[in-house]
Request: fold
Amino acid sequence: LALERLKKESLKSALEINTSVRRVLAETLISKGFLEAPPVIFSIVTDPLNHPVYDPSFMYGDYKYSLTKSMIFHKQILVQEIPKFFIFSPNVRLETPDKAASGRHLLEFTQLDLEIKNAHREDLMELAEELYVKTIEYVIKHNSKALQSLGRKLKVPSRPFKVYKYLDLQEKYGDDFEAKLSKESSEPFWIIDIPLESREFYDREKDDEPGILRDMDLIYPEGFGEALSGGEREYKIERIRERIIKKGQTFEQFHWFLEIAQSGLELSTGFGIGIERFVRYICGFKRIEDVHPFPKVPGE
Ligand code: AMP
Ligand code: MG
Reply:
């Protein structure tokens, strides 16, 4: 089965597109003064996520390490000293088998994860749109053969992308709003102002609207679903502590991060965009595993 996958013409096309996607993203960020940081593959603290996944961990010396689910805490700490950086960050999330049906979940994937100091959500949304449009333009220009062999017609979306508030969409479309609107749309769009219960503790709560976060999701058109998540971060230690308690999580779990946060953090904002999902969308594949030579699919 593995050999069959490797021999597919469509895998070669996907890898050509993967090469372009990583190149445009990295080159664009570098041209804007971002530094590239190396990934952290395992750590004593990682993203708690807002959905249950199995947590692979092991002891080394006196410490218990987890495989990285995201580098959120490392980003928030590093950005204090390095105000603009990105990481191609491998994440392991042992998702539940029901996630296989989505066509966009792998157990192992890569985020282009970035963070900017003293920036606001709107700055990051602009940056994401620029990266998105530049990538599509580049692929249309340089990977036309691959797109043609995949039977994929792509058009460059117009900016600015539409912006919807989470609760407005939920009221209009019901709980399945994201999937419904993604299917209906021919252009990518934003969902902003996500309620606190639906997200992790580290996304910043609005000062003027308690319970609502200064965060955002970018959604692909044509039913491809979520592209990226991001947001402003809670940076005041008292607020971070409150939010951890609200989630029913423990300080112990985040000890390493809290100890550093205690010495004072400044505001930062960032996002992570899944590379395999981006390549899948560009290729127009029904299933994300078709972009990877050695995919790990939930439940398999
Ligand atoms: P999150 O912060 O959890 O939204 O993850 C950031 C981004 O990583 C998402 O918007 C997706 O593009 C990507 N991503 C998250 N989980 C997976 C997964 N299981 N498989 C592939 N990509 C993922
Ligand atoms: Mg997300």
